[in-house]
Structures are given as structure tokens and as C-alpha cells.
Amino acid sequence: MPRGGHAASGPAPDPNALRRSRPADAATWTTLPSEGREGEPPEWPLLEPDGREWELWADFWSRPQALMWEKMGQLYEVAMCVRMLARAEQPKSSIELQKVVRQYFDSLGLSTQGMLRNRWRLSANEVAEKRATKTVKAAPGRSVRDRLKAIDGGGA
After folding, report:
1. CA end-to-end span of the chain, whole Å?
2. Does an H or E element contain 31, and which?
3. Pfam families attached here (predicted)?
4. C-alpha 54 chain-centroid distance
5. CB 120 within 8 A of CB 30
6. Rounded to an integer, what is the distance from CA 17 to the centroid of its chain?
């Protein structure tokens, strides 16, 4: 009897798995620029958006995944995700609506699981990495406890 039952059954692909060094496998992953998509969002394809939908629409189209949505012509899918998310944010929204939003996030690559399933990864952000590596050097011979005392005012 076949196993699974739906397209997303089984673990998501791991770009860092040990066997992922095969050239044919590496070619199946798409690296998206971490800076995201530049420029104005596309024209809203559905009936008039409300204020919150427009905010979400602009935010979504500035993300790295937007480059792929544009390439694949997914304006309607993104617009429906935005519309459902705006409704799901409302107090007392249904669990079913929240599940639909989660499915949209996965299919559009907005969740970690969705990024893996679509075989998308983000490029290294050199600016953020440089900021992260600039750490304050501790004075030699000082313990972690001594450094923490200096931060919180010296209490034990």
C-alpha cells in the first residue's frame, strides 16, 4: 500500500544534508537574495484592498520570495494569502481560516518549512554577518561571571 497520502508527506529537503554535495542535487536549489525584491509591489489583482491588506501586500512583495512569485506569476495566490491573513488577524477568527493562512505560507515559501519544500534558500547577508561578528572583546582573565556582574551593576 502506498505511503504518505499527499505531496508534502515526509521530511522536507535539507540543503545542508551530508549527501547534498552532489552537483545534480545542488542545482535543484534556488538561492534568493536576502535583501529581497526591490521596487513597487505589483498592481493588486483582486477587488479593492482595505488598508491592512495593502500594508501586507507591500510587505510581502519586498521579501526575497517575491522574486519567485513574480517569475511564476503568482499574483492571485499572494493576494489571496494577504486577504486571508488580514481576516485571520481579526479577534475571534476561525481556526480553519488560520489553517488556510498556514497552508498559503507553506506553499508561497513564507515559512521555514515552505522554503525547504520549494528548495529555496537565502543568500548570505554580508552586512548582517559583519555586524554579528563585531563583538566586544572581554578583558583577558575575566570570567563570564565577572563580565555579567559588570553589566547588571555588580550584584551577585
Report:
1. 63
2. strand 30-32
3. Terminase_7 (PF25673)
4. 19
5. yes
6. 20
Q: What angle do CA 33, 135, 112 make, to 5 degrees?
A: 35
pTM of the model: 0.68
Calpha distance 68→61 (Å, rounded) = 10
pLDDT in tens, 66-115: 999 999 999 999 999 999 999 999 999 999 999 999 999 999 999 999 99
CA distance 94 to 88: 7
For 19, half-sphere exposure in the C-beta direction (CA atoms, 13 angstrom radius) is 1
The string of pLDDT tens digits covering residues 83-94 is: 999 999 999 999
